[in-house]
């Protein structure tokens, strides 16, 4: 018994089979805590005892492990006596508490980094000893020593399950985790899904998030050359299943994978309609192979991010970026975007100028702003937030002259004359400052909300990287998932009751043509237009807020040709007419927005497709029109009750899957593309 009368000390030893037990051969690092002589209360009948018989030593280990888990500790195999296949073979085994043994002092090597990881070992003497008995040709194992005295606190049931010995991932769970990783969901989301599947409370799976991360990391530790071969085989396999899947790659002098780019059939179709403004995000790396990753994305007519393509490069030099841009335009039938937004990269800038000479190159403002804390926080200190607010004010100015004057005042006010980052920003101002970009179409991708949506979309591909060969499949699953989510968002937008705020005929006309997302943007300008006054001048109109006595915007309108433009350049920048132009149209008794100022890329899909195919054969145009009418009737009838909507959604999804299995006419896609260019 222990000195503490409130504790029970269990120590059994068979005098006929005593051997010395040394537990001092530990091999990790931690100072032993103060002895806290704890022992277990015999509250359960399944306690090891001298003379207890087991058929195998593994059975004894499992019994002792179960006992240990119930009591609040775990065990490990320690010493053995004898050896299988030699003499009498294995004759004795010791199982000890996981905190048995002490930490040897490590010799520190100069210049060599040391891991200062603490050890849990504290010299605990709890153990179980079993010995082999052979009688009449039968072998069994008998308990010949047992001590259950611990010099450390024992864990509660809700804590003991986190010990490494009791954490394991079954083969079935490993398969599920691997499947989840291909979809791009985070480890935290994987854990929640597995908890729901197994009907366990949060935090009660037999493994932790760290175990899952380690498992995913182990998938990556494969031979790089084998990885490259598997990756190319995966691409070829996808190509065989879907002939419209496209990929290109290059090999180095040693026939090793150097660069690879790919795009999916749905991505190429999306680009035909919405590839006018593209973000090429090159700020990420695929950790599975430590290669720079580039992702092309855009925004569709419902304001939802859409995926265009991916590229992995060995090096970030001019040659590699030029190859990537060539591969991308090749996927898209030679069509380059009107505008491409990227991070600040001199080699990439030079490659774009060479491969896409007619494309406007701009910098993603959120990529630029993301570097501000490391650039300016330390130097500006408490003034950093004030400086950042002034930067955003200058960024949103409309006039280049106002920007130049404001920038000069900002540099003087904050004393940034010698700051190299400020000088670099000013030197590249034509690539990121809105006063310099308003004449170029950016599809609203400079807005904070849109940039966050695009960044979240990209992060989906990177949240659970596994093997390189699985990455192309993972991206495909993520893109398909996004396509389905986009269809649901599209349907939800179309089912929303659009609220007309002005009562103007232009508003109701635009609502019938544009997607709800695009109409909301135009509607904002229509509402504001009512607060502006227009004055006819010799060379056009001057439009300003009714409270202002000077200033304003110049609007040029040619009614006979249906052409209107404004000095604010909102239409050129976003594809939506500004309040100034709308005010002039309203003053001139125009009851519809001119067709050319309702771009095809912002219209409802059904409307755009019916217009696109009018130039085709008469019977085809009639069939498209008939389909449009059917879809319109389907939506209106389905929206009348939840039951109708459920049936329509289910059956339409099935029909859409069947339609996607059918081939797509390349001629129709070219017609759509040319129509987009004519209407924008």
Quickly describe the structure.
With 680 residues, this protein is of the alpha+beta class. It is built from 26 helices and 19 strands.
How does this model look, in words?
By secondary structure, the chain is an alpha+beta fold. It is built from 26 helices and 19 strands. The longest helix is centred in the last third of the chain and has 28 residues, at 468-495. The N and C termini lie far apart (91 Å). Mean pLDDT is 80; it is low at 1-8, 18-44, 606-618 and 669-680.
- Number of separate strands: 19
The averaged pLDDT comes out at 80
Based on CA atoms alone, the radius of gyration comes out at 35 Å
Q: So how many helices? A: 26
Proportion of residues in helical segments: 40-55%
Indicate the multimeric state: single chain
Q: For the largest beta sheet, what order do the strands appear in spatially?
A: 9-10-13-12-11-14-15
Low-confidence stretches: 1-8, 18-44, 606-618, 669-680
Largest sheet: 7 strands, mixed
Strand portion: 15-25%
- Per the principal axes of the C-alpha atoms, what is the gross shape? elongated
Quote the distance from N terminus to C terminus: 91 Å
SSE class: alpha+beta
List the helices and strands and how they pair.
Blueprint: E1 11-13, E2 38-39, E3 53-54, H1 57-71, E4 75-81, E5 92-97, E6 127-135, E7 138-147, E8 149-150, H2 157-160, H3 171-183, H4 187-198, H5 209-220, H6 224-241, E9 246-251, E10 257-263, H7 265-274, E11 277-286, E12 291-299, E13 305-313, H8 318-331, E14 339-342, H9 346-355, E15 360-363, H10 365-369, H11 372-380, H12 384-395, H13 400-414, H14 420-427, H15 429-432, H16 434-437, H17 448-462, H18 468-495, H19 505-513, H20 516-529, E16 532-537, E17 540-545, E18 553-558, E19 563-566, H21 570-574, H22 579-587, H23 605-612, H24 618-638, H25 642-660, H26 666-679
Parallel strand pairs: 11-14, 14-15
Antiparallel strand pairs: 1-7, 2-8, 3-7, 4-5, 5-6, 6-7, 9-10, 10-13, 11-12, 12-13, 16-17, 17-18, 18-19
């Amino acid at each position: 018994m222990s000195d503490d009368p409130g504790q029970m000390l269990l120590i059994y030893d068979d005098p006929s089979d005593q051997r010395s037990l040394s537990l001092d051969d530990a091999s990790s690092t931690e100072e032993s805590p103060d002895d806290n002589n704890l022992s277990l209360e015999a509250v359960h009948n399944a306690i090891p005892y001298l003379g207890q018989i087991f058929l195998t030593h593994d059975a004894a280990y499992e019994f002792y492990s179960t006992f240990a888990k119930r009591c609040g500790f775990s065990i490990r195999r320690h010493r053995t006596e004898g050896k299988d296949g030699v003499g009498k073979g294995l004759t004795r085994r010791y199982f000890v508490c996981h905190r048995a043994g002490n930490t040897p002092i490590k010799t520190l090597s100069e210049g060599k980094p040391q891991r200062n990881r603490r050890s849990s070992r504290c010299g605990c003497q709890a153990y179980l000893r079993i010995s082999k008995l052979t009688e009449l040709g039968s072998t069994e194992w008998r308990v010949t020593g047992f001590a259950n005295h611990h010099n450390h606190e024992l864990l509660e049931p809700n804590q003991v399950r986190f010990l490494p010995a009791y954490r394991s991932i079954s083969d079935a769970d490993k398969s599920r985790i691997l499947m989840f990783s291909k979809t791009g969901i985070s480890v935290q989301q994987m854990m929640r899904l597995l908890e729901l599947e197994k009907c366990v409370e949060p935090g009660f799976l037999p493994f932790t998030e760290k175990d899952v991360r380690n498992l995913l990391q182990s998938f990556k530790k494969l031979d790089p050359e084998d990885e490259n071969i598997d990756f190319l085989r995966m691409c070829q396999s996808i190509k065989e299943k879907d002939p419209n899947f496209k990929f290109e790659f290059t090999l180095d002098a040693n026939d090793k994978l150097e660069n690879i780019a790919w795009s999916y059939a749905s991505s190429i179709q999306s680009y035909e309609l919405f590839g006018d403004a593209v973000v090429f995000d090159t700020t990420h790396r695929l950790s599975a192979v430590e290669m720079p990753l580039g992702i092309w994305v855009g925004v569709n007519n419902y304001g939802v991010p859409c995926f265009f393509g991916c590229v992995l490069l060995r090096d970030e030099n001019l040659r590699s970026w030029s190859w990537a841009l060539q591969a991308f335009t090749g996927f898209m039938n030679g069509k380059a975007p009107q505008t491409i937004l990227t991070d600040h990269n001199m080699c990439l800038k030079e490659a774009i100028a060479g491969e896409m000479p007619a494309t406007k190159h701009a910098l993603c403002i959120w990529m630029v702003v993301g570097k501000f804390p490391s650039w300016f926080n330390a130097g500006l200190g408490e003034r950093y937030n004030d400086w950042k607010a002034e930067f955003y004010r200058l960024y949103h100015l409309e006039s280049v002259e106002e920007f130049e004057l404001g920038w000069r005042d900002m540099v003087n006010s904050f004393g940034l004359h010698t700051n190299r980052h400020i000088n670099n920003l000013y030197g590249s101002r034509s690539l990121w400052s809105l006063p310099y970009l308003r004449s170029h179409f950016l599809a609203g991708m400079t807005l904070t909300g849109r940039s966050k949506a695009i960044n979240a979309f990209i992060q989906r591909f990177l949240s659970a990287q596994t093997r390189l060969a699985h990455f192309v499949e993972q991206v495909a699953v993520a893109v398909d998932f996004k396509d389905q989510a986009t269809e649901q968002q599209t349907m939800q937008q179309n089912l929303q009751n659009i609220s007309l705020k002005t009562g103007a005929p232009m508003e109701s006309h635009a609502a019938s043509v544009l997607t709800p997302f695009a109409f909301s943007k135009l509607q904002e300008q229509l509402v504001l237009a009512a607060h502006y006054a227009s004055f006819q001048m010799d060379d056009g109109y001057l439009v300003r807020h009714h409270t202002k006595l000077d200033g304003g915007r110049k609007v040029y309108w040619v009614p006979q040709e249906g052409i209107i433009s404004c000095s604010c350049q909102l239409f050129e920048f976003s594809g939506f007419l500004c309040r100034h132009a709308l005010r002039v149209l309203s003053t001139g008794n125009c009851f519809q927005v001119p067709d050319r100022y309702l771009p095809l890329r912002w219209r409802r899909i059904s409307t755009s497709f019916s217009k696109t195919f009018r130039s085709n054969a008469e019977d085809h145009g009639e069939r498209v029109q008939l389909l449009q009418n059917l879809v319109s009737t389907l939506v209106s009838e389905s929206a009348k009750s939840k039951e109708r909507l459920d049936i329509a959604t289910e059956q339409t999804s099935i029909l859409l899957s069947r339609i996607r299995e059918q081939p797509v006419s390349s001629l129709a896609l070219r017609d759509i593309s040319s129509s987009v260019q004519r209407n924008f």
